[in-house]
Amino acid sequence: MSLTLAAQINSVMAALILLTAFGLLVQRRILALLHLFAWQGFFLCVSTAIVGYVTGEHHLFISSLLTLTLKVIVLPYILYALIHKLKIRKEIETLVNIPMTMLIGIGLVIFSYHLTAPITQLSTLMTRATLAVALATVMLGLLMMVTRRHAVTQIIGFLALENGLFFAATSATYGMPMVVELGVALDLLIAAFIFGIFFFHISTTFDSLDVDQMARLKEGD
Amino acid sequence: MTPFDIAIASLFLMFAPVILAPCCARSRNLTIHLSFSLTAAASLAAVIAGILCVHLESTTSAVVQMGLPDLPFHLRLDPLAGFFLCVIGLLAFFVSIYSIGYVKAMPANRPITRFVVFFCLFIAGMLLVVLADDAFFFLVAWGLMAASSYFLVLYEDEKTENRRAAYLYLVIAHVGAIAILLSFGVMAAQANGFETFQGYTFDAMRATSYPLGWATAAFLLSFFGFAAKAGVIPLHVWLPEAHPVAPSNVSALMSGVMLKTSIYGIVRITFDFLKEFPWWWGGIVLVLGLVSAVLGVLYALMQHDLKRLLAYHSVENIGIILIGLGLAMIFTSFHLPLLASLALIAALYHTLNHAMFKGLLFMGAGAVLHATHERNMEEMGGLIHRMPWTSALFLIGCVSIAALPPFNGFVSEWLTFQAFLFSPALHRPILSLLIPLGAALLALTGALAAACFVKAFGVTFLGHWRGHHHIQQVREAGWSMRIGMLLAALTCFLLGIFPTVVITWMDVLSRQMVGGKIATSAGAFGWMWLTPYSHERASYSGFNVFIGILAVVLVAWLLLHARKAGIRRVPIWDCGFEKLTPRMQYTATSFAMPIRRIFGFLFAIREESHAVEPLRHAAYPQRLQYRLRVRDRFWGWIYEPLREIAFFLARKIGNLQQGRIQVYLLYSFVTIIVLLVFLG
User: Fold this and answer.
1) ipTM for the assembly
2) Distance CA B85, CA B49 (A)
3) CB B517 within 8 A of CB B511
4) Which one of A142, A154, A218 has the shortest CB-CB distance to B657?
5) CB distance B662–A147 less than 8 Å?
6) Which of B201, B239, B634, B638 is most buried per CB count within 10 Å?
7) Which of the residue ranges B151-165, B182-196, B338-352 would you say has the lowest mean pLDDT?
8) What phi and psi values does residue A123 have, to the nearest 5 degrees?
9) Which of A114, A2, A12 is nearest to A53 (CA)?
10) Which residue in chain A has the smallest CA separation from B666?
11) What are B's interface residues with A at a Cβ cutoff of 8 A?
C-alpha cells in the first residue's frame, strides 16, 4: 500500500469520525447514540491499524485491537445492558436546540483547523492533516457533555472525547507508548464500571437519570 | 561545647516531653513534674547558649537534611539569634517553674497531657523561629508556634468566648504569615541562586543588594506580617481577646516572648537582609509605634479585666520597642551609627525587660485568678492581706512596667528618651516635627502607664474585699508559682541596677547590625554609670538610685516604727454614715473616669444609668443602675467593614456554584477555549 493511498484512507476515516461526532451531537435517541459511538470506535480502530501498517509501528496494532474490543464491543455492551436494565427509553432532551448546537460545533471545527495550522506546517508525519479533526472531536465531545442533560449521554460524550484524544495521539506522534495506552484502556474500563454503579445509584435516589436533579445537592445559602 | 551544641541540646530536651507526657499520662503528678522540669532545663540550656553566643560573638550554622527533598533546613546561631534565645529561654525557665504549681491547681477533670504537649511545642517553635536560617524552615517554625499557641488559647474550649478568641487569633496569625511568606518570596526572587533553589536561604538574602522598589515591597509585607503577630495597632484586636482566655502561664509566654519573635523578624529582615533603606521606612515604624504606645495604654486604662488590661499593655510596650526600632532605622539611613546603636540597644533592651516584667505580671495575674476565680478587678480588693508574696511581686512588676527606677523598665525607656533627645537636626521638616512630638508622646505613655498600674495594683490588692464569696477562701499561691515569680522579679531588679553589664554584653548586636557601639563608659566611671552618649550630657546609675531609695525607705521606716505608738490599726472612719460597705470603695471605673472624659473621642463609649422602678414616686428611686461599655473603635472602623466585604464577596463568588453539572463542564470548556485562543 503506498503512502499516499494510506494517507487518503486515513483522511476518509478522519472524515467519518468527524461525521459520527456530529451525529452524536444531533442524535436524540439513546440507542442510536450508542450505535454511532460504536461506529466511531470502529473507524478509529481502522485508522489506527492503517497508520500502524504503513509506518511499521507494530504496537499500534495492539492499540487498534484494544480499541476494537473496548470501544466497539465491551463499552457499548455495558452501556446497552445498563440502558436495558434501567429501562431508559425516553427521548433525550437537550439544553440548547439542535441547529444551534450544530452551528457551535461547526465553529469549533473551524477553530481547531485554525489552531492546528502552524503544527501542520511544521510536521512531516503522514497523519498531520487529521490532527485538526482529532482536536475537533475532543471539543465536540466536550460540547456534547455540556449540552446534554441525561447522565448516559454525558458518559457517551466523555467517551467520544477520549476517542478524540486517542486519535490526536495517533495523528500527532503515531500513538502514545504502549504502557500509556494500556493504562488508558484499563482506566476507561474501570470508569465504565464506576459509571454503571453511579447510574444505578442516581436512578434509585432521584428516580431519574436527569443530571439536573443533582442541583439539589448544592449547599443552600 | 559550643553555644550551638547547647542550643541543639536544649531543643531535644524541649521535644522530649512531647513524647514522654503521653506515655506517663496515667499519673497527673508525674506528668507535671517531669515535663515542666524538662522544659525548665531546656530553657536554661537555651539561656546559657544565648549568653555564651553573644559573649563569644560566635556564629555557627548547620544544615539539617530534613524537610522536602533538595530543600534542607538551615540552622544558624549568631549573636542576634543568641540574644533572642536568651530572652525566650529566660522567661520560659521562670514560667516552667511557675507552671508546676499553676497546672497542678487546675481543675482535676481537665486533661493535661495535651496542654503539656502544646506547651513544649510552643516554646520549641519560638526557639526554632530564632534559630532558622532559611525562609522555608522559618515559616515551618512560625507555623508550629502559631498552631500550638492556638491550641493553648483554646485549652478551655467549652466556652464560646474562648473559641471565638482563638479563631480570631488564628485568622490574624494566618494573614500575617501569608504576608511574611510573600515578603520572603520577593527577597528570594531577588537573591542570587534563585535558579538553583538556593535563594530561599537567609545567607543568599543576606548577600544580595536589593533594588529600592523590591526592597520596599519586601519590607512593607514583612512589617505587616510581623506587626500582625506583635499586635501593633490596628492589628492588635486579637491580643485583648486571646490573652485573657488562655491559661495564665501561656499568656505570660505569649505576651512576654511570642510577640518578641516578630521584633526579631523585623530586626533580622531590616538590618540584616535589606541593610540600605530610605528614612521613611523608619518613619512608618516610628509613627505606628507611637500610635500603639499611646492608644495601647489608653485602652488598657479602660479595662477592668486584669488580664485584658495586661494584654493592652503589651500593645503599648510593643509600641515602645517599635519607637526604638524606628529611630534606629531613621538614624541608620542618615548614617549616624552611634545614635542608631543607642536606639537599637534601647529597643532590644526593652524587649528583654518587657519579657521579664510582663511575664511576671501575667504570672501574678494567674496567681490571683487561681486564688479568687475572678478576672474582674471590681470584684477583688484587699488581696495584700491574703496573698502577701503575690502582692509584693506583682508590685515589682507594676513598678517595672511603669518605668520607675530602680527597676528595669526605667532603663530602657530612659535610653529611648536619650535617643530622642540626642537626635540632631535631620534636614527633613517632617522629622523635626515628629521627633519632639514622639518624645512628648512617649512621656505621656509613661505617665499613663503609671496611672494604669496604680489602678491595677490599688484596686486589686489594696482596700477591702469586694467579691461575692468569702475572702477566707482566697489562699496564697503555691511555692513553685512563688519561685517562678520571685526569679522574674529578681531579674527585673538586676536588669534595672546593672544595665551597664547587660549593655556591654549585648553591644555586639549594635556593632553587627548598625555598625556603632554606644559608650557605656566602662573605663572612666566603672560599671556603675550608664552613659550612652557622653558623660557631660546624661548618665544614670541604677545602683546609686537604688541605694538612695533604700536610704529614704529606711529613714521613713525608722521614723514610723521607732515609737511604739507610731502606727495604730483602727476601724475606718465612716463620716458618721455608719453603714459602710466594700462597694463604697474607689473603683477601677471611677479611677479611670477623668482619663475617659479627656480621651473620650478615642473610645466607643456607651454609658447609661436609670432608676429602677421607684416604690412611691419617681423622685425617690429605690436603686440606680449604671452601665458602662467602653470599646475599641478599631473593631468598628476596620474589622466590621472587612468582615462584611469578605462575606459579600464570598456570597457573590458562591453564585458561580450553580450545582448543575453542565455549568461546571461549561466552565472548563470555556477555560480551555480561552486558553487555546490566547496562548495557542
Assistant:
1) 0.82
2) 8
3) yes
4) A218
5) yes
6) B239
7) B182-196
8) -75, 155
9) A2
10) A146
11) 651, 654, 657-662, 665-666, 668-669, 672-673, 676, 680
- The rounded distance, in Å, linking the Cα atoms of B357 and B377 is 20
Instruction: Give the contacts of B235 (CB within 8 A, at least 6 positions apart).
Output: B172, B176, B224, B227, B228
Which residues in A lie closer than 8 A to residue B666 (C-beta atoms)? Answer: 146
- Taking CA atoms, what residue in B is nearest to A148? B662
| pLDDT at residue B525, rounded to an integer | 57
Instruction: Give CA–CA dist B250/B118, Å, rounded.
Output: 10
Instruction: Count Cβ atoms below 10 Å from residue A202 Cβ, excluding itself.
Output: 19
Give the whole-angstrom CA distance, residue B665 versus residue A96.
Answer: 15
pLDDT computed for residue B93 by the predictor: 95
- Chain A residues with CB under 8 Å of a chain B CB are 95, 111, 115, 139, 142-143, 145-149, 154, 211-212, 214-219, 221
Taking the C-alpha atoms of residue A56 and residue B529, their distance in angstroms, rounded to an integer, is: 95
Tell me, what's the pLDDT at B619?
Answer: 72
Contact B672 A212 (CB under 8 A): no
Q: B-chain residues within 8 Å CB-CB of A143?
A: 669
**Predicted confidence band of residue B468 (pLDDT cuts 50, 70, 90):** confident
Q: Which pLDDT score, from 0 to 100, does residue B645 have?
A: 94
List CB contacts of B479: < 8 A, sequence separation 6 or more: B101
Residue B311 has pLDDT above 90, yes or no: yes
Q: What pLDDT digit, counting tens, does each position of B117-160 carry? A: 999 999 999 999 999 998 999 999 999 999 999 999 999 888 89
Task: Please indicate whether, in this complex, the C-beta atoms of B659 and A214 are within 8 angstroms of each other.
Answer: yes
What value does the mean pLDDT take over residues B346-351? Answer: 94
C-alpha distance from A124 to closest chain B C-alpha (Å): 20
Closest CA to B403 of B305, B293, B480, B295: B293
Distance from CA of A215 to the nearest CA of B (A): 4
CA distance B592 to B296: 14
The distance of Cα B346 from the centroid of its chain, to the nearest Å, equals 16
* Low-confidence winner among B64-68, B262-266, B505-509 (lowest mean pLDDT): B64-68
Residue closest to B55 by CA, chosen among B550, B606, B501, B629: B501
pLDDT for B381: 84
Q: What is the pLDDT of residue A39?
A: 93
Mark B236-269 as b/e (b = at least 16 C-beta within 10 Å): bbbbbbbbbbbbbbbbbbbbbbbbbbbbbbbbbb
Residue B72 has φ and ψ, to the nearest 5°, of -70, 160
Cα distance between residue B139 and residue B178, in whole Å: 10
Judged against a pLDDT cut of 90, whether residue A173 lies above it is answered with: no
Query: Which amino acid does the sequence have at A48?
Result: T
State the pTM of this model: 0.81
Q: Express as a percent the part of chain B with pLDDT over 70.
A: 97
Per the structure block, which three cell numbers stand in for B550?
533604700
**DSSP per residue, B172-208:** HHHHHHHHHHHHHHHHHHHSTTTTTT-TTBHHHHHT-
User: What percent of chain A has pLDDT above 70?
Assistant: 91
The per-residue pLDDT for B173 is: 92
pLDDT for B526 = 63
Can you tell me the distance from the alpha carbon of B78 to that of B271, in angstroms, rounded to the nearest whole number? 14
Q: With 90 as the cut, is the pLDDT of residue A62 above it?
A: no
Comparing alpha-carbon positions, the chain B residue that sits nearest to A154 is: B662
Q: Sort out which chain A residues have CB atoms less than 8 A from B653's CB and list them.
A: none
